[in-house]
């Protein structure tokens, strides 16, 4: 498992709708904004890269020092972004696919407004479990 | 594709890679130049750059071309060495600090929108000092021994004409001890082109002397290499120029002094000519010559196949030679150096192809020699040459990258070279519009040195901005990174500048951490710079950071207060985010003609009250024709639209504050901001309304300040509240303002003090009003602008009313006597009091004399004779508005008490609304009447569930069996059932069995249930003559269910029992199908039993009354009958069939005569059973069966079952009716008749004689239609089971 990993779902309007620190290293206070900065800046790259490929998993598209950003773009242009320091492409891919499935389930909830924050605790526990499993 | 010759990189290269000239001068030369505030180099610098020198040059292969741009770099001999690290750092710092100071004014300017940032030209946006900074960085890497382009090409020796022995000086100046180490340590050729310049100051001496010296010089050094330069020809030193060419070159000095003030036009012309001559006639030809010589040498030694093989062989052998770190690796006369010099000279003369070929040649050599620094340097030059040739783009990039990584690999010693290479590389990419890549390069340059990194990151940020499409997020991120580094180097101005740029991207972002970080830091830094207003503005943005961790919240808050403290004053902040005001939940409650007894009453929906008051208040139509007319005369239109409140009566505003943080905060001095204007200055509020937003805010501030002074205190009173809020808490604060003087009062906003240091102000008008539409309690019809404006009128009396000891929780049926108290605090009397209660079933008005009686004892029957048959006063109950007697209204000195009856009629949560109307005596007042609205909530718990079943007595005609089932539904309460009464004159009620002494019949524990049987007798059957007598004899309509004789029975025919009975009857009416005399109303009275264990003993026993109205007696038909006859008969069937005589008594319970026909049926058709059951189900209507322990004989469903059973398929009926099959007769009202019947039985057995039917119809022909259409006029009933057993008579028995 990665020592640092920050997972985030960004809606198509570039608004973060879910975020979780899934690394083993306990979260540092000052890291929170740094992670957001890196992921936010990586959106610029995603914007370019997403249309060059038909694949949903864009692999590592951006890096900052030793942190790498991997992105998975869904059909609705919701972006699943992972900031990590380990190199485990297969694991990350599986992680993204399973989270995507979870996210679709959330979308199917008639009470969930697409593009709003995902607050389901069930979703959260599932994502963390997946992170433990794959990352 | 951009022509590389016009790019920025080209200009940079012209600046950096151009022939260097070493300048040697005597102090006197320097002195002469100092008159102009310039050094010699500075004076010459503007004229050593040529934009169009137009010198013909030949390449090594004799290809002629013309050189256009050319530049000489002049250095003093002492400057030709690498700068020390400290010096370089210091210079960079200077540049940055200087730049920062220049920009300070912009820091407070308005924030640019990001859209405009994108559209503005990049040149405007990118700070211009970047160029200077980059130049300094590149200069810091100059004069390295591994590069030849910094090696001086020529030496300019300047001697003043005043010097003694000028010729000697010229020789002395070129003394080896003074020369830079590059020449001394052998990395460059000490044989260098020399040019001798005699500087003559016209102010100091005569020209003749100078010309003399020049002639001598020419003789000594050769004619062409000497020149005389006359300066300072201007006499008074006031020469001014349109464009001062020195100013742009000398960036660091101030502009206050005019440069070159002693130089006149001739001098300048001479300067120009001197430098032109020097470069075109000496330097360029010298370089050209050198290129040729070197090229020949290189061709001889290195070109061709043989030389290459030789070279390789030789290189291999050289591998094991240890490198001497102190001495330069390659001396000037080594082949490698020569090739390098050749390349650099070619490059400087813009013969890039020659340069490139030589660089390539030497590059492999250096690589094989592992001379990494040299290798990197050559790669760098190759990259630049590729770029200038505009050839392979890929190669250029490859070379630059290679150079960059190689430099980086060498380590810290080459840090400057890394930076220089990176800057060139980035410029190259920028020239090709590869901004994104350029940004990457800048990012790579940023290393450990924070200041450099900061600038590089900032440049990277601008690259992202300029790339297409603009990468704004990257731009913002890199600006933030750079700002952090600036902060680390204490360059706060720059830090603020970068963050401001970043803010234009991150403004309003949903990425909360980013937003908080940027706002917080920029705010903090502004405060460091002393710009507190800006600082506070930004820190305010992050105060409501509920999403942050607790520590961060504390940090933010602490920093905020620190800034506030530094300002040294209590700061007023508009729209302070802490605590947050929940706008939709703001409620304004005021009283005009409507007054409320409690806040709860004010929360009740207005329509509910209006419906209740409809009958009492003056009618709408009258109001419109009279009132409005009158009002419009009295009042200007403006006031009609505003709300009315009364002087001395408080306007309550409930504001809900929410603490978004996890840490507790203390809020003090919460109060409203109000504006009061007396009626005389009418123009004031009007003008205020037209103020625009910003001005309004300012006005608000002043109001807030003056609010503390005593000036306003006389006009209105404000309440102040202090609260302390825990993390995440929401507190509803009740604020009041009490106007004291008539006029107009306007609620402007709310203010509070956070932690005793910051005053927060929230303006209702600007933010609230739109949101208030949904929930505001203020009249909807009015325009919202006026919502918070009140017309204050002079005081009118206001009644206060309460109901004493109204319980919160009661059990169903609880009956109480309550007291309502009305007070009038003012001296002015009121009149015309009226009252209306929303639920008369629960609460009703009692007679005033009840006050003096003891409840509930007075309800008990005193004697039987005292009972009077009072019928309910129909007018009293029908009219729901109660008018208080006039005499009460006029004398309001003491509070008036009035009794009320309360009965918990049904379980559930009951809201009781009471409204009291009164009029003021004062005619002149705008408000003619007022209403007092009282509201109570009562929780009613279920207590006893009672159900009744009445069935006709099988044996007696006018009697019914009543079964009462009572269940105690409570969990803890015990009840004593006291009595059961039935309402009405015609009923007599008695217990079926008398209560035994051992039996406590009516006691019901929690959860217990009870069944009782009663006999109900209809007295109306008697003839009309007997009626009066029997009514007197009656008194048995009540049955005591307790055995103790001491407690008397309650009289159910007096108030409040009859009152509530009336309401219950109305309420329960819908269940019954009409009242045709066949229904009974029961009242069950129980007392709650004191449970000594729980609670204090009650002072009075609680009375519970349960009403059950419209209980149907057991027959749906108005015609009752009963069959009389033997139940069992013994008969000897051998002597024939048995005849049995029966007697049927038929009674007409109606007030009209009916005709009755009895049909006897000998066989029961099958379909009959269906109709039979159908009628059974109709018969069952309104009943509910509480248990199956009922008498089988009288249950209707068991009857149906029996009928079905009797239908055996084989049977011929074992008995037949004898006599006529149909008998018809008429019955007078309330009379009975007897009909004889006979059956013949053929065999023994038990028979059910239910196979007859009875049909009746009203004989109403003579009476005509009495208008009661709904009344049932005819009907038919099936026979009731009557079992008869016939047995064989045993002869032996006879």
Automatic annotation (TrEMBL), chain A:
<dbReference type="InterPro" id="IPR006722">
    <property type="entry name" value="Sedlin"/>
</dbReference>
<dbReference type="Pfam" id="PF04628">
    <property type="entry name" value="Sedlin_N"/>
</dbReference>
<dbReference type="InterPro" id="IPR011012">
    <property type="entry name" value="Longin-like_dom_sf"/>
</dbReference>
<protein>
    <submittedName>
        <fullName>Trafficking protein particle complex subunit 2-like</fullName>
    </submittedName>
</protein>
UniProtKB/TrEMBL annotation, chain B:
<dbReference type="Pfam" id="PF12739">
    <property type="entry name" value="TRAPPC-Trs85"/>
</dbReference>
<dbReference type="InterPro" id="IPR058541">
    <property type="entry name" value="Ig_TPPC8_1st"/>
</dbReference>
<feature type="domain" description="TPPC8 C-terminal Ig-like">
    <location>
        <begin position="1122"/>
        <end position="1253"/>
    </location>
</feature>
<dbReference type="InterPro" id="IPR024420">
    <property type="entry name" value="TRAPP_III_complex_Trs85"/>
</dbReference>
<feature type="domain" description="TPPC8 first Ig-like">
    <location>
        <begin position="605"/>
        <end position="816"/>
    </location>
</feature>
<feature type="region of interest" description="Disordered">
    <location>
        <begin position="680"/>
        <end position="699"/>
    </location>
</feature>
<dbReference type="Pfam" id="PF24545">
    <property type="entry name" value="Ig_TPPC8_1st"/>
</dbReference>
<dbReference type="Pfam" id="PF24542">
    <property type="entry name" value="Ig_TPPC8_C"/>
</dbReference>
<protein>
    <submittedName>
        <fullName>Trafficking protein particle complex subunit 8-like</fullName>
    </submittedName>
</protein>
<dbReference type="InterPro" id="IPR011990">
    <property type="entry name" value="TPR-like_helical_dom_sf"/>
</dbReference>
<dbReference type="InterPro" id="IPR057651">
    <property type="entry name" value="Ig_TPPC8_C"/>
</dbReference>
């Amino acid at each position: 498992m990665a020592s640092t990993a920050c997972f985030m779902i960004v809606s198509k309007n570039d608004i973060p709708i879910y975020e979780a620190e899934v690394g083993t290293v306990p979260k540092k206070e000052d890291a929170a904004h740094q992670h957001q900065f890196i992921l936010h800046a990586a959106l610029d790259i995603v914007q370019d890269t997403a249309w060059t490929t038909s694949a949903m998993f864009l692999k590592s598209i951006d890096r900052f020092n030793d942190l790498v950003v991997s992105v998975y773009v869904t059909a609705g242009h919701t972006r699943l972004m992972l900031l990590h320091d380990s190199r485990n492409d297969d694991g990350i891919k599986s992680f993204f696919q399973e989270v995507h499935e979870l996210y679709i389930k959330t979308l199917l909830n008639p009470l969930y407004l697409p593009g709003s924050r995902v607050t389901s605790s069930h979703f959260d526990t599932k994502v963390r479990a997946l992170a433990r499993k794959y990352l | 594709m951009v022509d590389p010759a016009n790019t920025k990189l080209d200009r940079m290269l012209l600046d950096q890679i151009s022939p260097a000239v070493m300048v040697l001068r005597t102090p006197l030369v320097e002195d002469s130049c100092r008159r102009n505030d310039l050094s010699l180099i500075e004076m010459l610098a503007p004229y050593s750059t040529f934009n169009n020198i137009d010198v013909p040059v030949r390449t090594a292969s004799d290809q002629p071309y013309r050189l256009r741009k050319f530049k000489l770099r002049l250095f003093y001999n002492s400057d030709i060495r690498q700068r020390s690290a400290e010096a370089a750092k210091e210079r960079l710092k200077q540049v940055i600090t200087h730049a920062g100071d220049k920009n300070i004014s912009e820091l407070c300017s308005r924030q640019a929108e990001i859209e405009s940032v994108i559209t503005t030209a990049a040149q405007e946006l990118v700070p211009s000092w970047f160029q200077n900074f980059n130049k300094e960085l590149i200069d810091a890497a100059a004069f390295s021994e591994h590069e030849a382009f910094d090696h001086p090409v020529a030496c300019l020796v300047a001697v003043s004409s005043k010097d003694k022995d000028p010729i000697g000086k010229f020789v002395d100046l070129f003394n080896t001890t003074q020369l830079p180490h590059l020449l001394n340590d052998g990395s460059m050729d000490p044989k260098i082109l020399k040019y001798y310049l005699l500087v003559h100051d016209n102010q100091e001496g005569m020209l003749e002397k100078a010309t003399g010296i020049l002639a001598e010089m020419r003789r000594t050094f050769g004619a062409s290499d000497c020149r005389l330069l006359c300066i300072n020809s201007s006499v008074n030193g006031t020469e001014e120029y349109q464009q001062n060419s020195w100013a742009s070159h000398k960036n660091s000095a101030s502009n206050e002094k005019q440069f070159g003030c002693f130089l006149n036009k001739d001098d300048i012309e001479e300067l120009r000519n001197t430098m032109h001559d020097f470069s075109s006639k000496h330097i360029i030809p010298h370089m050209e010559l050198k290129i040729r010589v070197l090229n020949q040498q290189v061709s001889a030694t290195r070109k061709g196949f043989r030389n290459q093989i030789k070279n390789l062989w030789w290189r291999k052998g050289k591998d094991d030679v240890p490198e001497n770190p102190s001495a330069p690796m390659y001396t000037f006369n080594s082949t490698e150096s020569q090739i390098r010099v050749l390349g650099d000279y070619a490059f400087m003369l813009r013969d890039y192809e020659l340069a490139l070929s030589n660089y390539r040649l030497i590059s492999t050599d250096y690589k094989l020699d592992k001379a990494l620094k040299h290798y990197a340097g050559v790669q760098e030059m190759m990259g630049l040459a590729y770029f200038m040739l505009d050839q392979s783009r890929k190669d250029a990039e490859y070379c630059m990258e290679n150079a960059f990584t190689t430099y980086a690999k060498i380590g810290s010693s080459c840090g400057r070279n890394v930076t220089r290479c990176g800057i060139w590389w980035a410029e190259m990419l920028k020239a090709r519009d590869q901004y994104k890549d350029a940004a990457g390069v800048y990012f790579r340059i940023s290393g450990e040195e924070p200041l450099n990194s900061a600038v590089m990151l900032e440049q990277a940020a601008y690259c992202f901005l300029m790339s297409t499409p603009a990468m704004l997020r990257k731009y913002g991120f890199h600006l933030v990174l750079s700002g952090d580094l600036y902060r680390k180097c204490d360059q706060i101005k720059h830090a603020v500048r970068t963050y401001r740029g970043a803010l234009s991207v991150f403004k309003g972002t949903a990425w909360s951490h980013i937003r908080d970080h940027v706002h917080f830091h920029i705010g903090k830094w502004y405060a460091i710079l002393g710009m507190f207003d800006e600082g506070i503005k930004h820190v305010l943005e992050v105060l409501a950071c509920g999403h942050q961790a607790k520590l961060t919240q504390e940090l933010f808050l602490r920093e905020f207060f620190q800034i506030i403290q530094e300002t040294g004053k209590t700061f007023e902040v508009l729209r302070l985010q802490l605590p947050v005001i929940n706008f939709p939940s703001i409620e304004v409650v005021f009283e005009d003609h409507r007054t409320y007894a409690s806040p709860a009453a004010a929360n009740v929906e207005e329509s509910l009250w209006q419906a209740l008051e409809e009958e009492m208040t003056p009618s709408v139509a009258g109001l419109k024709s009279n009132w409005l007319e009158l009002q419009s005369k009295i009042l200007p239109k403006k006031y009609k639209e505003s709300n009315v409140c009364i002087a001395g009566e408080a306007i309550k505003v409930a504001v809900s504050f929410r603490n978004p943080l996890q840490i507790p905060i203390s809020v003090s001095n919460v109060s409203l901001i109000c504006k009061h204007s007396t009626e005389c200055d009418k123009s004031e509020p009007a003008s205020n309304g037209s103020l625009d937003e910003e001005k309004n805010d300012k006005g608000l501030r002043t109001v807030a300040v003056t609010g503390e002074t005593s000036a306003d205190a006389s006009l209105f009173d404000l309440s102040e509240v202090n609260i302390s809020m825990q993390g995440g808490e929401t507190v509803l604060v009740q604020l009041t303002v009490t106007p004291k003087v008539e006029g107009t009062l306007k609620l402007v906003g709310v203010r509070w003090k956070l932690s005793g240091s910051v005053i927060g102000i929230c303006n209702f008008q600007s933010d609230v009003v739109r949101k208030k539409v949904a929930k505001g309690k203020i009249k909807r019809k009015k325009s919202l602008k006026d919502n918070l404006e009140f017309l204050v009128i002079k005081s009118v009396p206001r009644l206060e009313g309460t109901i004493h000891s109204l319980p919160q929780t009661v059990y169903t049926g609880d009956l109480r006597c309550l007291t309502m108290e009305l007070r009038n605090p003012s001296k002015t009397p009121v009149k015309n009091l009226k009252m209306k209660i929303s639920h008369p079933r629960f609460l009703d008005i009692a007679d005033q004399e009840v006050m003096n009686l003891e409840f509930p004892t007075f309800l008990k029957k005193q004697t039987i004779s005292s009972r009077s048959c009072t019928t309910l006063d129909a007018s009293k109950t029908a009219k729901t508005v109660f008018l208080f007697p006039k005499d009460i209204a006029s004398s309001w000195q003491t509070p008036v008490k009035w009794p009320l009856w309360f009965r918990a009629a049904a379980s559930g949560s009951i809201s009781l609304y009471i409204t009291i109307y009164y009029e003021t005596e004062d005619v002149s007042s705008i408000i003619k009447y007022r209403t007092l609205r009282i509201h109570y909530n009562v929780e009613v718990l279920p207590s006893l569930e009672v159900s009744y079943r009445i069935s006709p007595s099988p044996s007696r005609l006018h009697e019914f069996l009543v079964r009462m089932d009572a269940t105690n539904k409570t969990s803890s309460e015990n009840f004593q059932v006291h009595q059961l009464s039935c309402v009405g004159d015609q009923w007599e009620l008695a217990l079926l069995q008398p209560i035994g002494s051992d039996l406590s019949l009516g006691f019901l524990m929690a959860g217990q249930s009870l069944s009782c049987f009663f006999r109900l007798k209809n007295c109306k059957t008697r003839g009309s003559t007997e009626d009066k007598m029997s009514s007197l004899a009656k008194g048995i309509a009540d049955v005591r269910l307790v055995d103790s004789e001491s407690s008397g029975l309650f009289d159910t025919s007096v108030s409040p029992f009859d009152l509530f009975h009336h309401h219950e009857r109305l309420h329960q009416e819908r269940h019954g199908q009409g009242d045709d005399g066949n229904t009974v109303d029961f009242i069950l009275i129980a007392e709650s039993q004191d449970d000594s264990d729980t609670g204090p003993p009650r002072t009075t026993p609680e009375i519970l009354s349960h009403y059950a109205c419209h209980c149907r007696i057991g027959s749906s038909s108005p015609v009752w009958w009963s069959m009389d006859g033997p139940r069992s008969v013994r008969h000897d069937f051998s002597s024939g069939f048995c005849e049995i005589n029966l007697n049927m008594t038929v009674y007409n319970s109606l007030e009209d005569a009916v005709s009755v026909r009895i049909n006897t049926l000998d066989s029961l058709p099958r379909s009959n059973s269906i109709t039979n059951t159908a009628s059974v189900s109709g018969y069952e209507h309104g009943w509910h069966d509480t248990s199956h322990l009922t008498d089988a004989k009288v249950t209707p469903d068991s009857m149906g079952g029996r009928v079905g059973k009797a239908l055996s398929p084989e049977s011929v009926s074992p008995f037949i009716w004898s006599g006529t099959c149909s008998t018809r007769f008429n019955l007078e009202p309330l009379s009975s008749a007897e009909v004889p019947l006979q059956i013949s039985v053929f065999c023994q057995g038990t028979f059910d004689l239910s196979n007859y039917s009875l049909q009746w119809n009203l004989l109403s022909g003579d009476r005509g239609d009495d208008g009661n259409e709904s009344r049932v006029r005819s009907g038919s009933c099936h026979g009731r089971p009557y079992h008869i057993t016939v047995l064989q008579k045993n002869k032996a028995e006879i």
